Amino acid sequence: MAWLLELVYQAWSTPQFKFDDEEKFGNRGDKAFGLSLGFWVDPTKIPVSAQQTTKKRVPDVFPMPGCNAVSQRFKDLVEQFEPGIHQFFPLKLRRKSGFSIEQNYYVFNCMTSVDTVLVKESRFRWGRFEEIDKPCIDIDREKEIVLSRMAIETRHLWKGLYLQPIGSGVFCSDAFEKALKKEKIRFLKQTYCREIDVPWLPEENILPALDWEAEKGELWGYRPKLRAQTLASRGKLEL
User: Fold this and answer.
1) I want to staple 89 with a disulfide (CB 3.0 to 4.6 A). Which of 9, 15, 107, 115 is the partner?
2) pLDDT per residue over 139-169, tens digit each?
3) Contacts of 87 (CB under 8 A, 6+ apart)
C-alpha cells in the first residue's frame, strides 16, 4: 500500500509565521509549492527566516505562506529512507517573543516526479474544458486512488507529473508512513492509496493529454510545463 501526505490547513495545527522578507518569495503563482513541487527549486527564491505571530505549539510539519516548514526529525527520517535526493532549505524560526526556536526547521521539497496513478483502476475519467477544448482529469480524493506498484518501484517519496491530485500532496511508501507514526511526527493528513501489480502505461493513462500535445505542439499541463522550463533554465536533461 501507499499513502498521499498533505499539509493540514487547520487553526489547531498551524502556528502562523510571517517571513522576514516576504518580497523575496516573489510571485506566489510560480514560487509557491505547498508541501513539495516535485523537481528542483531555486534556493535563492526561498525565504530563510520567519517570526511566529501566535503563541501556538510548533509541530514537526506545518504550512508556511506558500510552502511548508519541517523539523529536523522529519528531515532525518527522509534522509534515512532516501539520502541526498530531496531539497531541504534551512529556515530560522523565532517565537512571537523574538526568541529562536531551538529545533532546526527547513522548507522541504520532494525532488521526484513520476506518474503512478492508474486512471481506469481508480475510476477516474478524462473530460474536456469546452471553453478551450482541452482535456482534463480530476484525481478525486473521495474515490479510491489506485497506484501501479511497478511504477513506484523502490521509491519512498514522490509526486505525480501529469496525474497529481489538486494541491501539493506527496505520495509515500507504506514503510515511510509507518515510520512517521512510530516517530509521532505531526501533522500530515494521510490518505490511503492501494497498490496493484499493473504496469503504468502512458497510452492507457494520459493518452488525451499526449494527443493534445501532439496536436498543439506544447505541453499539456502546468506541472509538465514548469518542469520543462526548470530543465531548460538549468541546462540539464533530467532532475
Assistant:
1) 107
2) 988 899 999 999 999 999 999 999 999 888 9
3) 40, 41, 43, 108, 109, 111
